[in-house]
Structures are given as C-alpha cells and as structure tokens.
Amino acid sequence: MERSIKAILPPKRPGTKSVVIFDDGTTRKYLPQTVAEQGLFVGMSLSEAAYQALEAANAALSAKARAVRIISAAAVSKGDLERRLTQKGEKPEDAKEAVAWLAELKLLDDAETARQIVARGAARGYGAERIRQMLYEKRIPRQYWDEALAGLPDMTEALTDFLRKRLGEEPDEKTLRSAAQAALRRGYTWSEVREALEQIKSDA
To answer: What HEC string does the chain produce?
Structure first.
C-alpha cells in the first residue's frame, strides 16, 4: 500500500506538532523535527515500509523530547525516567533508547540524583529511613545509596525541633505517643526518637 502526503499543517504554537494529512484520509501528528529530518513534503509518496519507518522515527523522537522535558523539571534516575516515559504512553523500546541517549550525553547520573534526593530529604527534616524509601521510590540503584547517605547531615536538631513543635508546653501521654509516631513516620529510628525526647525533657 502506498500513500502520499496531501497537506502539512505547521504547529499552531511553539511546542505543538505538525499535522500531516495523507491522501487516504489518514491524519497524523508529527514533531516538527520529524518533518524536517525525514524530509516530508506535499506530494511525497511513501510505501508501507517507509510509512512505518516514519512512524517509528517519530515515536523515538517523541520519547527523547519527553525525556528532556522530564529531566528539565526534576532530577530523576534512569529507572524512574524509563518508568515515567512508558506511563506517559511511550513504547518501552523507545523509552529505553531515550534513557540510553541521555546517559550517553552525560545528562543522566544516578549517583548525582541520589545525592540530590538525600539533600532534599534532609531539607524536609526526614530521617535516614524515610530518605532510603525516597531512593527506592525513585528507583536509584542500591549501589549509590551508601555514598549518597554518607552526605546526610546530623538530623538530631531537626528531629528535636520537630518533636518540640508537636509536644507543646505540657504534653500528656497521648501527645507523646502521637509525636513519637509522627517522628517514626518521618524516617527516624525509635532510639533516635527516644534520645530526642529525653533531651527535650532534660532541657525543660
């Protein structure tokens, strides 16, 4: 089956796609980069194989463009980026290729992303266990965890301040339990919470 291009409508605004209309009534949206790289023009005829190759080329470029937008907005790991791309509808093979492309360009660095996640967790006042959970959720390979967590500052003061705010002036037993549980949920160990509570008690 052969089809020819009847019309090419340029993007209506920056960041949108070109609309390509074929003589069989098929309408497809392609990235402007696809149109340029594939040399598309009105009257151009494509065999079925050429049409499928065009579709594949556009899909690969789409995954790369989406990957760039994602890493421009937030630090992500290779695994997390691949997952997010497929969730957005990109084909698994295109997502994998886009991740490999960015890694080759040195724009994806799991070790650096791990350090950023630890710093972000510390800024939020989280304990080490909660930050480990963040590393897991962001699909950071475990080989980078220890080095990143080595940069975690002493969170004793952050934990103590958090507990003081939860406890108030004269906390009862229920308030103490509630504050301790909240601290545990933030990733602190029971021994850390107990020591902080003892410190607050001694300072009173």
So the answer is: CEEEEEEEECCCCCCCCEEEEECCCCEEEECHHHHHHCCCCCCCEEEHHHHHHHHHHHHHHHHHHHHHHHHHHCCCCHHHHHHHHHHCCCCHHHHHHHHHHHHHCCCCCHHHHHHHHHHHHHHCCCCHHHHHHHHHHCCCCHHHHHHHHCCCCCCHHHHHHHHHHHHCCCCCHHHHHHHHHHHHHCCCCHHHHHHHHHHHHHHC
